[in-house]
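Lab notebook, bench 4. The sequencing result for the construct came back, and we need a structural model before the next group meeting so we can plan mutations. Quick request posted to the team channel:

Model the 3D structure of this chain.
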Amino acid sequence: MQDKCTTVLVYTREAMSRSNCYPYGYRRLGSDGMEVVDDSWRVRLPSLLWIPVFVFGALLYFVDIFEIEFLSLHPTIESIKDFTYDIHKGFAINTPGCKIPEMDPFDPSVQKFIEPPTPVECNKGVPALFEANLTSIYITRSSLPAYNVSDINDLRCCYWVIQRIEPKKNQYDVFMSKSSMCKYINTSAEIKDEFIKVQCFLDNATTYVDTFSFVPIKNSTKSKVIRSKPLNVLVVGLDAVSRLNLHRQMPDTLKYLQQLEAVEMLGYNKVGDNTFPNLIPVLTGLFEDELIKSCWPTTKSFFDNCTFLWNHFKSKGFVTAYGEDSSWMGLFNYQRHGFQKQATDYAYNYFNRYAETHIGNAHKMNVNQCEGARMVYKDLLEYIKKFVVTMNNNSLPFFGFFWGASLSHDYLNQPKLGDPVYLKFFQELQEEGHLNNTALVLMSDHGIRWGGIRQTYQGRMEERLPFVFVVLPTWYRNNYDRAYSNLKRNARRLTTPFDLHETLYDLLDPYGLSGENLKTANKSRGISFFRDITKYRTCEDAGIASHWCACQQSKELDKNSSVVIDVATFAVNYINLELQGYAQCANLTLLDILNARLMSHSGDIEGLNNIQDYMITIKTIPGEAIFEVTVRYFEIDHKYAVIGTISRLNLYGKQSACITDFHLKLYCFCKNFL
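Done. Here's the predicted structure in token form:
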């Protein structure tokens, strides 16, 4: 084969140029007409000076091939920032398998959607009459005038114990009972129960109702194995907040996490549409359809036959807790039946549902923002702290998984209100020593899924890239530096909820994360953050459907082109086919194509069938629903297919009230609204 480089000739020195074939000289024609290299300009180095050059080259080779972790040498924070910035300038993730651009949280394309949130007024400004600490409730005397109490002796108060009732077959897991007797309260009372309802009377009329939660030591937890130096696990979730929106809305909390040397996973990519398909992989390591096949056959089934992370921790002697606010739309309860047997030792979500039902107020969009005079999300954080403090005070190892939705589920800017509250929460945990023996994970499930920002390119990217921070105790980082170095390097790798599942599972035996134990299969769907995640990893390797993959490059298409119209028509027909059998739902018609993009792929998937993926945003009638759909076109077969699930970009409210299927509610427009 002829060397293609020999076809280029340079005739004059003035026209000489560098050659890929001759990197150290200029090419010209000799007197015999043959091409020669003129390297007279070079400075020749003494032969001994080549030794360090070869050594340096060999070092670079080994670093590239074996991905030696420079950060394990414990450089300063400043040098780490400089090193990562040089490599990843312009990209959050910049690997052979995935490139995710680094985006400005205040980019002009999204700036117009960022505005100060409206402060929330709970209970119409009437303060709480009772407050609580770790073990007791007490009257706040300064609140008496708000209840027209001039003499405290005229006030009569008592409390009922409230507790969960185990549901029967086909029932929903939502029932609570109230004790038959109301126990008298003077001005304070020590509480040994888990959940209570307080009621006060003035002149024989109810003047005050409140609810409180506590974390008493239970008989089932007293016999837990006490470890000499346990590493507890605490997961705190914040619904629907992208990584960039956390930077925008909660800068003080973010700064404090950085002071704790939290590792931020810059390439954490969601794998499903909403909360359920993104948290089920974290808690079980399974996709939703895999969960259905293995242990949850119908939405009327309880989740008792499924194995969650807390089951593993409980078998190892940990006390377990699960809690969420806005629990009416909770992970296991929205259009689902929950559990028959209580899944964890402590379960705050039952209390939350009772409290919001009886004293919930300041309702906005989908959530009650307040329980009586207290913000719902603040009450959840107070409960988490009570749980952590109680477990530590009693030397009980724990696994706690908590999820907050009331602050952030519906609004892009609302999390800003929680910035000082979350900051104080983490400061108190740290300053009181509760993080000295605890692995802390702060996370979200996805970014905001609707609204104006979601219809921008950056908003689409943000929705696919929620935040995850991991905070480890200093002593653990120092003793298990290889696992910690892997964690820091994987901050710049493509990661998923499946990886977070493996990470939390690894913490069942955190003292085994060293040496040969950290090896892993590069093609595994789930790989722990503490292990080696290859830089060649793609969305296909990680189990991320094309529709959700943030690694893809794309180009905008003419929305009026024939191929885009064909793709949009196919998408609408697909939605209507999904709604077949639901006569109460109207047939949808394409109203408009808002935008269309052609997505790029790694060579591995393109080679299968010369595929093309089109991501389009369409509007349908009736109802003016806005959908985002990824449609794959197979050139050989001339066929279309919807990839992943379809995203609904605007709220449907009561439009789908006539249907209970939690997937199809996104599509259905009830005929009775026509």
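The first strand starts at residue 26 and ends at 29.
Will bring this to the meeting.
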